[in-house]
Design goal:
The longest helix has 18 residues. The relative contact order is 0.19. This protein is α+β, with helices and mostly antiparallel strands.
């Protein structure tokens, strides 16, 4: 039994996909509702000390991006990953309210350079990796991410460069592939703001979201 729905780009996800396509897996709204319910659920009482920063509009943008990527790349490549982002404490509220932003060199800039592996949003699969970018902050962000087809970027060739044509994101060719770069903020869904001792709990929750919501036969 399939649900058909009309999917529009919603002004987000810069993948080179026709703006209107039909998807026969489940309605976007149903997927969004399931994600929000699973991430905010606290039936076991363990989430009381974990700050959930899920935003329904960001969820819609993320799911629309996922569905288009799945249509283009296939379910395996489009499957979300769990990534982490450290930043200064004074940027917490702007990020929670407006999401992570791609640096434009004006209103949003990189902290130390123009971006070793591209001018984008830097994430890592290791929650400890970029702790120094918190400059003393003890909390950091946890996201679901859609890296898609990744270009192996090197320094200095990719310094300050935009997304490589034909790819969905960049990954550092060195640094143990710990730096992942995104050029479309709709490929990142803010889920939690946590401390290091809460990583295991939120990772378990988000892995269940990935398995239950984004894994289709």
């Amino acid at each position: 039994f399939f649900y058909y729905f009309y999917l529009s780009c919603m002004g987000g996800c810069s993948l080179n996909i026709p703006p209107e396509i039909y998807i026969n897996i489940a309605t976007r709204d149903q997927i969004c509702t399931q994600i929000i319910e699973m991430i905010t659920n606290d039936d076991d009482g363990k989430q009381r000390d974990v700050k959930c920063v899920i935003n329904p509009q960001f969820v819609q943008n993320f799911v629309a991006c996922y569905l288009k990527m799945r249509q283009r790349r296939g379910s395996s490549v489009a499957k979300p990953k769990i990534l982490y982002h450290w930043t200064r404490q004074h940027l917490f509220e702007p990020i929670i309210n407006g999401g992570l932003k791609v640096p434009d060199g004006k209103k949003v800039t990189h902290t130390t350079d123009t971006g070793y592996y591209g001018r984008g949003i830097y994430m890592s699969p290791d929650p400890n990796y970029a702790q120094s970018y918190g400059y003393g902050a003890t909390l950091f962000f946890v996201t679901l991410a859609l890296p898609g087809l990744q270009y192996k970027a090197s320094y200095p060739e990719s310094l300050g460069k935009p997304l490589k044509k034909g790819y969905d994101s960049h990954i550092s060719n060195d640094a143990n592939e710990m730096e992942w770069v995104f050029f479309d903020n709709h490929q990142l869904l803010l889920c939690y703001q946590i401390s290091l001792d809460q990583v295991e709990y939120v990772t378990n929750v988000l892995n269940k979201v990935i398995d239950d919501v984004f894994t289709y036969s």
